[in-house]
Amino acid sequence: MNPMRTQVGIVGGGPAGMMLAHLLHRAGIESIVVEARSREYVQERVRAGVLEQGTCDLMREAGVGARLAREGITHHGLELRFGGDRHRIDLSGLTGGKTITIYPQREVVKDLIDARIAAGGAIFFEADEVGIRGFDGNAPAIRFRGGGSVQEISCDFIAGCDGFHGVCRPSLPAGALTIFERVYPFAWLGILAEVAPSSDELIYCRHDRGFALHSMRSPTLTRLYLQCGPDDEIGAWPDQRVWAELHTRFAVGDGWKLNEGRIVQKGITPMRSFVAEPMSYGRVFLAGDAAHIVPPTGAKGLNLALADVRVLAAALAKYYADGSRELLDSYSRSCLRRVWKVQRFSWWMTSLLHRFPEDNPFDRRRQVAELDYVTNSWAAAQSLAENYVGLPMD
Fold it and tell me: Going by CATH, does the domain composed of 184-270+356-389 fall within 3.40.50.150?
């Protein structure tokens, strides 16, 4: 066994884990990151792409925003489409100039990994058999197999940033957490197409056949989603069917057309809301998808994860500066207040735009009436806008 020692052991090399490691480094706190996947995998997996104003501010403040500033696509509004009509929500005008930025999660991870390596920070990729122990006492440790041998990292604290399917949350004792969950009766079929976006801004579409979303990843890559059945298989959605359904759901009467291109990626994403409370136990602190999942309708997953680690990094900095556990002890409470507001918004956006199998004609008319209200009421539109650009991180 090869023993190591650090101040904070971080399980998970995605955006939450890498941002935490970076923020701790800037505060003079040592950490080691352990990631089960390869560097190539975490840098290339297709995930979220909408950054809130606060997330962009955090990237800039942390010194990893240079490429974001060059390559990110800033949006000042979004479109709600229903009943064959288009309605723009002026995000900036409703929030005092705040914006969202299109910048894929994989690019955020690349920037953070590059910063980590440039700073000489330790990352163990392709770690097998990862486990944590000792976190209910004063000697927490992370053990894993890497490079053909067993490795162990002794640390003061463990940050569980290893996602919904990671090892940290399941390692906590039975009864330590209360789980709140809702599984939705539909999924998203997502495609990535090599074609210029058909709109300068995101389009959220409510249609009697189901929800659709037009997004983008770059000036030449379009990201599109369709509501589908939770048990649908990719084989049931050949390219021709995908494009036909997209054209049907996005159709309007003013000449707007959806650009088609070669589909280079296709996948089905289940939809759920999930929260584990509290977000800490002993010397383990959960962050990001390890602690909560939101349906992607509100574009909040990545942003919520980075908000968590911003709070955690400040709490750890306070502890190492003067020995105070005040912020560590309030970490879960501080994060959960924001988490539940984001859960509320993500659920609301999902219920506003999707067709539920149990809906009757009354439900569908009510849904359209709410969209009509949101797009014609300054107060309702402002509520949507301030949540979409991001609630305060602190």
Answer: no
